[in-house]
Amino acid sequence: MLLRDRFWLWGHPEGMFNRLIEKDGASRMTPTEACLSLGVPNVFMVPCGKSVNRRQYNKSFKTLRGVGWDCFEAAVHPEKIELLINDAKEFPNIKCGVFDDFKNDDDPGLPPRYKRFPIENLMKVIGRMRENPVRRLDSWMVLYTRLFGIDEKDDAEFQPFMDAFDGIILWVWKESDLVSLPDKYEIFKKLTPKNRRMFGCYLYNFVEGKQATPEMVRWQLDFYREKILLGEVEGVVLHTNTMADMDYEAYDAACEWMDLHGDETVADI
To answer: Is residue 197 within 8 Å of residue 188, measured between CB atoms?
Structure first.
């Protein structure tokens, strides 16, 4: 397979973050268009609470290699995983579900998200994803480098949740924290000995409210490629379609990097 086959887009409803980039105009790029623009054949669709027509999006994803949908609500209400299973019945390229911001602690008035429901709910959902009348659907979880490797007790408490998932996607919350990525990655490997792994790569610096720098995008993609070639990591998720048509240098850097490396041959998965 090609290296680009290991890459995914983190897809949102088009224009979702236009309020953040008003000074630069408005984005209209859909997830499918961004996949074509960036040269990646897979997408995770994450509506972030916005009501969307799932079938309409799934039809637009028809030519993609792999599709996954955010499933976090199913951890709270297990019956909601049936939406993904029903979609998979009609669309054979739906392969997985992702649980976004699973451990986040960004609301000081509430406990981390994963503590708001029993682990039994999660195990029920993942069990249903693995065994259902359609086909096995893999489970992925989002994890940020800022949320582990600080308190051993906290890491140990979270470990059963980590172990439940098929795979974990590692993200760096803000660009200024990328300097810690190599060290955090070594900790991450120790926490995920049985999980599949991917990296997430922001193409806009959301937390710090500005464009990502092309140099850091290229640095990340080179680091991630190295780990893919070593067989330690499965792929990379690029975030997001919602600025991909805004002439931002970071997006151009990602496209140029993919033009350079995307057709390299890597092991099949």
So the answer is: yes
Q: Distance (Å, rounded) from C-alpha 118 to C-alpha 122?
A: 7
Query: Does some domain include residue 267?
Result: no
Dist. CA 198–CA 169, nearest whole Å: 5
C-beta neighbour count of 197 within 10 angstroms = 20
Total-model pTM: 0.97
Q: Which pair of structure tokens corresponds to residue 124?
A: 């029920």
Query: In whole angstroms, what is the distance from residue 117 CA to residue 231 CA?
Result: 34
pLDDT in tens, 199-221: 999 999 999 999 999 999 999 99
Per-residue pLDDT reduced to its tens digit, 22-77 = 999 999 999 999 999 999 999 999 999 899 999 999 999 999 999 999 999 999 99
CATH number of the domain to which 212 belongs? 3.20.20.80
Paired strand residues for 10: 44, 239
Total tally of structural domains belonging to the chain: 1
DSSP 3-state helix, strand, coil percentages of the chain (rounded to 5)?
45, 20, 35
